[in-house]
Amino acid sequence: MMALELRERPVEQTAAAEIIDCDIHPKVRSLEDLRPWLSNRWWDHLQTYGLRSRHGFAKGSPYPKAAPMACRRDAWPASGGEPGSDLELMCEQLLDAYGITLGVLNPLSTGQGDQNAEFSAAMCFATNEWQKAAWTEREPRLRASVLVSYEDGEASRAEIERRAGDPDFAQVLLLSRTAEPLGQKRYWPIYEAATEAGLPVGIHVFGYSGWARSGGWASYYIEEMTEHAASAQAVVASLVFEGVFERFPALKVVLIEAGFGWLAALGWRLDKVWARMRDEVPHVPRPPSAYLSEQLWVTTQPMEEPKIRAHLLDVIEWIGPDRIMFATDYPHWDFDDPGHALALPDKALKRRIMFENARAVYGRG
């Protein structure tokens, strides 16, 4: 990878010389953008029935009006469309402004988890083609995620196999709130295909498969935000105890937009209960933390920031400095500015988190 020259900016600290941003959200200007890759059948279906996610906010937006579409106010393109739909503006505000070496695209609200599984697969295929045509083929600093209709394991496998070997794709993308815990065998074809293709599996928080946060539908948006970490913890426990990591030892899993301060404590707890109840899961022969230290990564945004900076270093050490990767969450309202985020005194550690860890995980230049 070639580093890009940074533009001078009046910030509290200098951004890393090379940055890989693991969470960028592109958006279609309208569903018409996907028309070239949808058959007449599915285009007619979309026009007649629309997207039908199994989600509590299917008839309205879960986001507060103070941050429409949960996005930065300055990210709305002057030419129209929603934040994340304009490549030139994304370059201006993110890629060029911070010298981003590589960015991973994670499209949301694109038909994943739709009630009609066949339609969901068609929408994922179209979105993957759109990512290439509108983004990665126009901007060499961007990589796409393979969207899959994750409630249909075999359809997901076929889409992953279709993208295998394509350097425009960096990972397979799932969401954290699925119909069943993600360790269940219905999802194993995804992990098998991703492993065979040499692609990490990114699991982004939220989801459209009909389930609320762990305690039911929340009254407030702030509850949804704080539950992201809890949903990620449930995913980790499921992957470990269902035996996914043991069955697929080459599988790489990246948890996106869930922070990371909770991971060390979760690993300790999983080890404790495993030590006492391991006879229930003989298919998990090693302590859970062993799998986490080899096959699991987390991204920074939205990172927990203790008042005492030394405690952040403790958390990083507990998790493992090679397990954490940087993300901005552009263009969302809680975007992490690379020039301000992750104020670490250790430059070598900061470089690992901002660049080297992601380069090793994604393995694409």
Tell me the layout of helices and strands.
Layout lengths: L18 E6 L15 H10 L37 H12 L1 E6 L11 H20 L5 E6 L5 H11 L5 E7 L12 H10 L3 E4 L16 H21 L2 H4 L5 E4 L6 H15 L10 H8 E4 L9 H11 L4 E2 L21 H16 L3
CATH topology: TIM Barrel
- Sheet-strand content, in percent, reads 5-15%
Q: Name the CATH superfamily assignment.
A: Metal-dependent hydrolases
Helix content: 25-40%
- Secondary-structure element order, as H and E? EHHEHEHEHEHHEHHEHEH
Helix/strand structural class: alpha/beta
Radius of gyration: 20 Å
Distance between the termini: 5 Å
Strand order of the largest sheet: 1-2-3-4-5-6-7-8
Q: What is the domain tally? A: 1
What attributes does this structure have?
single chain, 365 residues, alpha/beta, TIM Barrel, 8 strands, 38% helix, globular, disordered N terminus
Description:
The protein has 365 residues and is of the alpha/beta class. The protein has a single domain, classed as Alpha-Beta Barrel (TIM Barrel). It is 38% helix and 11% strand. It has 11 helices and 8 strands. Strands 1-2-3-4-5-6-7-8 form an 8-stranded parallel sheet. Strand 7, helix 10 and strand 8 form a beta-alpha-beta unit. Helix 4 runs parallel beside helix 5 (188-197). Residues 1-14 have low confidence and may be disordered.
